[in-house]
Amino acid sequence: MASLNTLLGSLLALIVASLAAASASNLHNDFDITWGDGRAKILNNGELLTLNLDSASGSGFQSRNEYLFGKIDMQLKLVPGNSAGTVTAYYLSSKGSAWDEIDFEFLGNLSGDPYILHTNVFSQGKGNREQQFYLWFDPTADFHTYSILWNPQRIVFSVDGTPIREFKNLESMGVPFPKNQPMRIYSSLWNADDWATRGGLVKTDWTQAPFTASYRNFSAEACVLSNGASSCGTNTSPPASSAAANAWFSEELDSTRQERLKWVQKELHGIQLLQRYQPISPRSTSGMQHGLERRRPCITSFQVLPHKIFNFFL
């Protein structure tokens, strides 16, 4: 009888976990379409979200929740084929003139050329912390998981579980770190052919439109802000009772992930850019979400290093 009860208990736990996972992955529950005049859609009973871009407009969405620290995953499949001139942005951001922001931006390219993954961290409205990478796979052929770990000690950008960048909290050295402003998740697909591909030399080919980026399997282990109160209790430490569930709050890179990070930084940090930041030009904001100031790199010179194909650890 005891073994039967144990088995039934295990099955019940599995069912509950499955239902929780299904609920967590329903994009209707987590996101709102914010712009695009029907070009953004949530499909398949909430399992898939697509953004589309044509010559008239792009599209975008935002999370219903605001977060102050968390471990956030989303699977993306980027615009295939000739995506030159397009940008798929996926990021966390607060509002206001002294905003915080954590960026993934995918810069499209000509067919056969690699995407550039652009990362940045803003704190109190100040960025200039950009790093760019090549990926070791074709991000348009299938879905891949892009993750942000954001806790009081560090921000870690990861792709399919491999860390590509770590931004540590160095406030003791006078470096601002985003830790006080709750942020929402935003994503948009938009035209940026004045700068996105080879400094604006390659323009968007509208005969290839509509361009489509796809999203699925969102998950967030995070401190959710509601009416100014955090689901984690305080911003310095979650309740002791939830320590196991909130292990991400003090998570750091172990030796294996540190080695993977070193490999990425050495082999895939393959773009050298001299750039400064300036507000997006008014014509670039057409159709973009109102009320959220976005900034983009103004590339004054660039050198793309020879592309490499890697077979790394997988």
Automatic annotation (TrEMBL):
Keyword entries, A-Z: Apoplast, Cell wall, Disulfide bond, Glycosidase, Hydrolase, Secreted, Signal, Transferase
GO cellular component term, pick one: apoplast
UniProt catalytic activity: breaks a beta-(1->4) bond in the backbone of a xyloglucan and transfers the xyloglucanyl segment on to O-4 of the non-reducing terminal glucose residue of an acceptor, which can be a xyloglucan or an oligosaccharide of xyloglucan
Leader sequence segment: 1-24
Protein's UniProt name: xyloglucan:xyloglucosyl transferase
Enzyme active site: E101, E105
EC number: 2.4.1.207
Biological processes, Gene Ontology terms: cell wall biogenesis; xyloglucan metabolic process
GO molecular function ontology, one term from the record: xyloglucan:xyloglucosyl transferase activity
Gene3D superfamilies hit by this protein: 2.60.120.200
Lineage: Eukaryota, Viridiplantae, Streptophyta, Embryophyta, Tracheophyta
